[in-house]
Batch of 4 targets.
Target 1
Amino acid sequence: MAADNRIEELLRRPLYVYDLPQELLTSIALKGEDQQPVAIKDDSELVPQTPPVEAQEHAIATSASCALCNVSFASVQDQREHVRSDHHKYNVRAQLRGNAVLDEIQFTKAIGELDESISGSESSEEEDQDGGDQLTTLLKRQARISQAAEEGQTSTPKSTGKHPLLWFSNPALPPNTSLGVYRALFTNAEQDEPRYLADSLAKKQLTPIYAQNNNGQPQTPSPHIFMCMIGGGHFAAMLVSLAPEIHRKQGGIEERQARVIAHKTFHRYTTRRKQGGSQSANDASKGAAHSAGSSLRRYNEVTLEKEVRELLQDWRQQINDAQLLLVRAAGSTNRRILFGQHEGQVLKQNDPRLRGFPFSTRRATQNELMRCFKELTRVKISQVDEAALAAAEGKQQETSKPSTPKPQPRKPKLSKEEEAAIMHTTQIQALIRRSKIPALTAYLTKNEIPSSFTFQPSDVQQNFRCPTPLHLASNLDAPAMVLALLAKVDANPTTTNGEGRTPFELAGDRATRDAFRVARHELGESKWDWEAAKVPPAISKAESDARSQRERQAAEEEETNRRKAEMDRLRQEEAEAASRVTKKGGRTLGAGITSVEKSAQEKREEEMRGMAPEMRMRLERERRARAAEERIRRMQQGQN
């Protein structure tokens, strides 16, 4: 019983691929292709399994899914991001137009032929402006392919790619539970030997690293990966360690975090707004334009290419030592920047470590890279009764054998109360996702919606996991919304969802968990049964803010120490290189290389390399001010 409780407790918290508990690694085995929780369609195409209606009574999956795109998710947050992705938008429009929908592998292959990424923005409004035309282009192209296929001229290519997830089982787990790991985390050699994938997963485990906050010394090197995205003028790159980093908090609490070795982002105006595509692609198809905007975009394309390639050359050693290279570069222009042949080329197309992101991504930002890293390295947990699914599928096949189709039973008509509840559910969920706290409180008050309101219909997977507004806000990691619901709306924190979890247990970060503790302090111990709600002891808002401030200062100090140590290392390397060169009459002894003094511009660029954009601007303003003062001083001396 104790072992079962231990396994259940492990499955409740996020599992990291490179730091799995020993209980799960023991006797872990790869599930056969015919036993994976996915459905096999024609041409061996693998898509996530959507439970039949007959099996839903016996098999309720804790992960969300999209039946239209045939994609499953580990959380409602992932499903929400998928709904805003290009993949889902394309399939919605394709279905409305009567075209065939694409799975994730087919869609990734289709957009790879476009010049730029479909959406280059995080906001839905900018996505519609920047990517709408290209999304329409892709729809039209797919329609032409479908029409040609009907006329016998060509056929739509079918995807032969493998499913991005590998599923593992363990005798200690419940029979309906499987653990999913992204295939991209395994090398090509490991994937060629499926029998040893479980052993390979066990060998990938890494010892956590304890954070060093005081001495400023470089941390111990550890296995790391390189991630970068480029599209629509946005570029983001990151070197991140695979070994988790442990930070000691107050009270001796240890918290695991990802350790970013280095990161950099660039943005240049290169995309033709409201028209889509890069300037170079437009020039290639229609000829060179002569407007001021086109000239600026051409200049920015060249500048972006120069900045990206210089950064890759600076990171050459770390990239060469990386275990995996995850790159998203849609369009020929972006691929040429990264993989085009040039002096000092770092990334190569034939590198066996090269991977694409096995899921939909958004605009290239540092936050998006970190989200992708967490998504990539987090173990997926599927709880689907496969026996019930197989029985239901066999029953469905038997009933579909007669040639005469049976009339589909009509769905029962909803009452006015049920329709109102569904409408309120849609409105409330939208306000919570957009963090509209005043609008949410006003909506609840105006419509006289009680604090005990639950989302409808209750049999939807999203509402199964997050049945109340407080569950949804906690699952979305929205601390301000959580505090508002508890303090202003009088939401009940003891309500449990279909999995038996309270809202606090769905919180994914410390800020959201602290919001519950602050509410406990403000509302008092007698307001709710906080122990039943699983909320830890109360803390005040001032204590929470002070701790957050201390952590920010510690992070800034750690970053400053890291930069100082890196600059000291670079200066030491330059001094050692200079000491090896002995000048004599403009020549070097031994090496035979002429020593050339660096120009002022080169020195400035070298000093600013690695600095944040704000620091570069501040340093440049100071230099210009000093130069102006020097000119004024010389003019005054000349007059005297």
Target 2
Amino acid sequence: MLRELHINDFVIVTRASLDFEAGFTVFSGETGAGKSILIDALSLALGERGEAALLREGAQRTDISALFDAPEAVGAWLAEQSLDGPELILRRVIDRQGRSKAYINGTPATLAQLREVGALLVDIHGQHAHQSLLRAASQRELLDAQGGHQALARTVAGAWQDWRAAESALEDARRNAEDLAQARERLAGDLAVLDEIDPQPGQWQDLCAHQARLAHAQALLEGAGQAIEALDGEQGSAAQALYAARHALQPLLRHDPALDEFCQAIESARIVCAEAVSGLAAYIDRLEPDPDALSRAEQRMTRMFDAARRFHTEPEALPELHERLREQARAGEAALDLEALEDARRAAEARYRQAATELGQARAATAHHLGNEVGRAMQALAMAGGTFEVALHETKPGPHGLESVEFLVSGHAGVPPRPLAKVASGGELARISLALSVIASRAARVPTLIFDEVDAGIGGAVAEVVGRLLRELGERHQVLCVTHLPQVAACAAHHFQVSKSTTEGATSTAILALDEAARVDEIARMLGGLTITDTTRKHAREMLGT
């Protein structure tokens, strides 16, 4: 849950440090005092987009930090990101130039990471959320969220894309069959050239070296023979010189043993010389002029040169080109295989319909349950006799499944349900939105739920019911609510007052945690306006049960 929120230089908040507890907490204050600024600040820490306009006038940067107790799901996420810790600190900094920095437990992070972990921590129901209920997409998303169908919905969307891609491939093959056949014929001609040569990796380099040896065989033989004669010939050879040098030093060793070092060096040179002579002799034995082999090598080099010119590449690149053309040929065969493409299309369609049918069945079960739950809640929210249904209408296959989702409502007994957008008044829509928010939140796994004036358009006895609903929700979650209704505020376990003041032309907001006495005054203000009387205080104490 959220334990602390620290705000510096945000909009009209100079500095605020708030400590939070479990249960149901409300924020109240005069209109325009900046109650929703708290929600906006927390949203920034949770990864919402920000800009320089959010900085307090004259400030160089805004700095917002939120401290959470990390539940098990968040702990697993932190471990995956190598950000372990029993606590979780999210921080967001935006400077005057609009540059944004984000941190998780002091480590730089991306906004995507903030949003990802934020979704595990907090669920915010905005004050205008009820307006989104008029959109079909929002109704479908709410149903899927309530039933936990999001993963299945993504599977359906992916299967739809696969089906469309398979259909497109089949249509392209049918439409372009003639062009594909011509391209395949050209490709076959190119492959025939390379198949005949059959170039292998490294072959060109080996062929060049082989041709060079054959072309200069006579010169190589003569050079090797001359080298043998110089090393071990009968007249003035290196071997004779080394023998004479060692023979001159050997008798002198008894006079100076230090000469042994040079004797050994000369002996080593003599051995190396002998090895070179032996190796050159073997080389001469292997190397014989072979005009036929030279001709064959030069012919192959010519063919590879010609092929390289044809394909505008280098001879050494022919093996890679050969394999690439083979792949293109295989792909071309598949593209022209209309039967295989039709089979792939049918298989993709079957996978889509199976997933979409499974999603539709899951939606139907959730729709029935959600309709009953919201209908019961409407009875307590001054809509006695009203009903709520989630209708699933069969549609053409699409990325969202085989059905559309529509919320139907009847505000009174005996009236048939009609689309929410056509029959609900502003107050009814707000109440239905609140019921949906509370019911959906009961199934939510996030520890902290925030309601930003979702009680707009509600008053009187209904407001007391709303307060009790939120207090009941606070037994399972940490609930934070921005409200203007005293009946809702009186149901809270904890109460903050948000006030605005102007000093020397500068406006600022202050946030104060209220004790019991201060709560009485704040509830009295909410009941009777700026002038607090004994009567409103008495009424406030009655509402608070003090």
Target 3
Amino acid sequence: MGEHQNMDKCPVMHGGQTTSGHSVTEWWPDSLNLDILHQHDRKTDPMGEGFNYREAVRNLDFDALKKDLHALLTDSQDWWPADWGHYGGLMIRMAWHAAGTYRIADGRGGGGTGNQRFAPLNSWPDNVSLDKARRLLWPIKKKYGNRISWADLIILAGTVAYENMGLPAFGFSLGREDIWHPEKDIYWGAEKEWLAPSDARYGDVDKPDTMENPLAAVQMGLIYVNPEGVNGKPDPIKTGQQVRETFARMAMNDEETVALTAGGHTVGKCHGNGDAAALGPAPEGADVEEQGFGWHNPHMQGKAANAVSSGIEGAWTTNPTEFDMGYFDLLFGYEWELKKSPAGAWQWEPVDMKEADKPLDASDPSKRHNPIMTDADMSMKMDPKYRAICERFMADPEYFRDCFARAWFKLTHRDLGPKTRYIGPEAPQEDLIWQDPVPAGNTDYSVEATRQKIAASGLSIAELVSTAWDSARTFRGSDMRGGANGAHIRLAPQKDWEGNEPERLARVLKVYEQLSAETGASVADLIVLGGSVGVEQAARAAGHDIRVPFIPGRGDARAEMTDADSFAPLEPLADGFRNWQKKDYVVKPEEMLLDRAQLMGLTAPEMTVLIGGMRVLGTNFGGSKHGVFTDREGQLTNDFFVNLTDMAYAWKPADNGVYEVRERKSDQVKWTATRIDLVFGSNSILRSYAEVYAQDDNESKFVQDFVKAWTKVMNADRFDLESYQR
């Protein structure tokens, strides 16, 4: 009878969540979501632990691959015909929209992972038809297989397209490794609908610098700005202000912004010859028969000249398959007026244009159409600063070509990291300041003798460990910036950051500068080695004789090779590992801890063990005692976890976000704590890790795991090591 009652019920769970269909965070929205630390678990990777892409790509026949890409560009396919018989514009847009998601505030986004293959990026309104571009590349990806990642292939396709249309590349590096699961925990904005008015992410939409951090694009689903104008209302001066802020948040200055805008719009076209409302669902919402395609157009097949993507319709230049000066010739050679595209979008068209200056129809060479300009294009002419740069480019076409080639290289390589990560025959040798260049460090010195000098220097364990941590914690796996190599903590702006305790830092650096002169070790090496010495001393004091691995060779960057402004976004606003935050924020301290841990490439267990160790080592900012749950401060013990999980204590809120740890029997205050400390006892997942380290038989495991996680942080930016794998 029971079986018959259940026959009509669906036999599988919907959504793969709980039996009720709701996720944990849906039931308890205030619970701490640790998914950001697990989003690229090995279980999602089909390649297996033994596969190393950065080794595999070295076996690629790069010349053969480029030859195939050049051939593809003019091999128009019936299922998606090329505009003017050339896929260059489409490939450039694909590469641009992959790289263009990068934002300097947290280093996330960019083309370095192949993330454009997955939601939400594969279904953003600004990425309409890029599903076709990636599918056109599939035969080449299939042919070269494991020797070329999607991430590398997408960016290379855009670079080769420019080369094919007449612009030699400044250079190109391989080495981008694919992810196998969406980076769904990247914050793209709080809006609940695509292309919601941009007011939602501004304090004041008329003041572009009030855009919410870390965002760079003006609306949900756009790469940059709305091509029709602010909130779809044409006003080139106002749009130009948004362009300036958006590109600055991508680490581009005004000259680079103009070069990218002009060079990007020198080739290809916009597509808006039809009814945008008639398009089918985006790839992520399309049914199985679409096989990963989206935006099905039921009218006129929706191909080539009949395609609809941005809604704007037309090419920018007379010769859209050639890299020339046509963008400037038309923009400044004609007056422009507002019109509507067939799809109903605002666009600028020329007044009384010569027939010979009009580009040919993308499908029918017997027809010509007006070119177009977006509101952002018109800002290049109307914004005084942008106009001056345009005039400089027009007076010196070779200078423009060089500026664009360099800006394109920066756009597509910014998140690849320093030059030491570059792979391939076309990787440029020139040092560029945005690469955060660091000279090679000395390895010809006695590490052991230097250890002894550090130990005898008079610096405390807390000073040694805190300085090493502050130097290394700036590392961001999102764009491979920051870290201890280079000892940028000696230079502006890092030496003055509040979180680095400038007075303490200056005192420690003075000692290291002297030791550097005596030993030949770089200050960068001394900072990291000093942290190792401190950890080893603390471990010995707790009865554990352990050596922290150390590899010399870090260099010391110089002020003239350091772009101080570009380092400003690396400043920590909070560091839960040192129990500090600059001020109160809307975001909870424990959420800021997760964000920092994820950028540093830490797993949840690594984050946990580091917190416990840092507390008992006495490394809290300003010497604070919050969370120092031990009577043996300065010894590397598991006391933090032992006392956190001890039911002899009760936890009660006090003032200013601080909590008191009271003995249950006497009600006397034993310790104080912050939310960061207590979350390791309150969150069920983190508590499970804390209990592991609190066990009587796991004190040695705690020390070993702490040293392993510590070493990972100290070496996160050692891309020069042969053992480097990421």
Target 4
Amino acid sequence: MSTVKEALKSSFVKMDPRVQAKKPVMLVTWLGALLVTVICVLHVVQGQSFGFELQLALWLWFTVLFANFSEALAEGRGKAQAEAMKKTRAQTVARRLENGKEQTVPSQSLNKGDVVLCETGDIIPGDGEIIEGIAIVDESAITGESAPVVREAGGDRSAVTGGTRVISDRILVKITATSGNSFLDRMINLVEGAKRQKTPNEIALGILLISLTVILILSVVTLKVFADFSAKSAGQDLSNVVSIPVLSALIVCLIPTTIGGLLSAIGISGMDRLIRKNVIAKSGRAVEAAGDIDVLMLDKTGTITLGNRMATEFVAAPGISVNHLAEVSQLASMSDETPEGRSIVVLAKELYALRAQSFHPQQAHFVPFSAHTRMSGVDIEGNPKRELRKGAADSIRKYIESKGGKFPSEVQSAVDSIAKKGGTPLVVCEDEKVLGVIYLKDVVKGGIKERFAELRKMGIRTVMVTGDNELTAAAIAAEAGVDDYMAQATPEMKLMRIRQEQSQGRLVAMTGDGTNDAPALAQADVGVAMNTGTQAAREAGNMVDLDSNPTKLIEIVEAGKQLLMTRGALTTFSISNDIAKYFAIIPAMFGGLYAVGSVKGPLQALNVMQLSSPQSAVLSAVIFNALIIVALIPLALKGVPYRALGANLILRTNILIYGVGGILVPFVGIKLIDMVIVNLGMV
């Protein structure tokens, strides 16, 4: 309720002509309301009848007020969040280091390159990179996520955001954003809508609306000339019918005031929907670009798959029991704290009720995984000594052959078979003997295939990007249902692929979190950086996902599509409204022209709604024109229902629902209003 009250107050503030000048269609309505008001005052001063003119003036002002209300309501939805952020920013102090000495200064006085100290309980005063130390940071004020995260110097998790709080430890942060340009500042501006720039599509639509307005103004102005000529020829007096107040009201009714009044609200709400998904767009242009995307480049790990490979099967070598393979695999994974290692222990327990044996610390020597050896395991002292290993097939082959053993061809066949299925084979050995293979599967997320199918219906092509080999990539791509894939992808390959797609006239979206993703994020039409990523990635992208969920890219595209669908639907409805109002008002206004005695005028045949009088027709149309804006505010703020359809089908649906509906609704609405005002004696 407080949001509505604030929006009402703001609606009156926005009556300022300098504000209306930014919206040409509504400026014409404002001028029309002012002109009719002046004429009404003159009638009062001159002692003439002014009831009809007063009603026209009031409803014209209501039209402007309701349009302002829609925009103010859209802006107000994020102001509470913005105020909380402003409070956080204003109260934050920084412990700046200069020549090794600590100084306490307001956060707004920090400059790019300053180094600040943050310890347990401190609020990080600005966007920056950790240059020393490691800390646990509470980012709930920005992301809404209650679970704290680890931030440390170096690597892809060194970026920190102003307004977040250090829970433990000590870090030194180098400020990377000047005051007023930090992530928090941009977020405040976006949720308030204060600095929202018009997008190219909005500008193009604005030009169309201005053109229609100019044409209709000229049509109405020349209508006065034709009306006077016709009235003189017929020997009639139409001065009361075609008066300046009536012509002013007619202009407002016929120009696209509906979409003109709702256009800003639609754009602001589109960005607000992304904010509620915890995605910050740096501009409205990025939101609209998301709606026009042709190609979606998605990382495999964490986006298409769950990200953690899970053990699903033990494949024993000839002469080896599966039970023995599972037992050795479990022992070799005892010290492996990775999700893959834990899944091996769990699978052996679930399938064969095995529990890893406990050894005295002096009996077991664990061998950790290293990039050099690409295997891990355990050495168990005893008589004889046991050396248990698991790892990549080629690494185990070299290890076995160095001990004089042989790598069975059956095991190699199993390795190849698992790789072709998109899995990861881990070979297990004991001393110089190969025992078999563990099948690690990269599990594709549930429902992802159906979502890709929906995107395909919309004409969007999906490309999976992965560092896996060709066989694994092909198998996962087939299971996930993507249209194409890039195997063994490097940053250079990603950048090249984006440029290639763009050279063919396509718009590309992608996600990333590392410094090596920054060039591709900057090149993509929609680059979504993860909030947990580096500062370079966040600066390169034109959107930041506060939840750091790569799958969010699909939701971002859907939000962009919904914005464009909403704007298109309401534009169609508005223009259809204007056509209907034209055919509803003009016949009623001139139905009496060329009437002789009891014989009605020829235009009366077109007055299909049988509106009572020219005055009631004009007043009913003006009232309808104002009320329809109020009726459409919820749709403008919420957006039309999103459906995964192709562009042609969406256009056909819009024309059917909002085009035909936009023609029918005014006929019904204006007729009902006409009946009410006549019965109330308002005209």
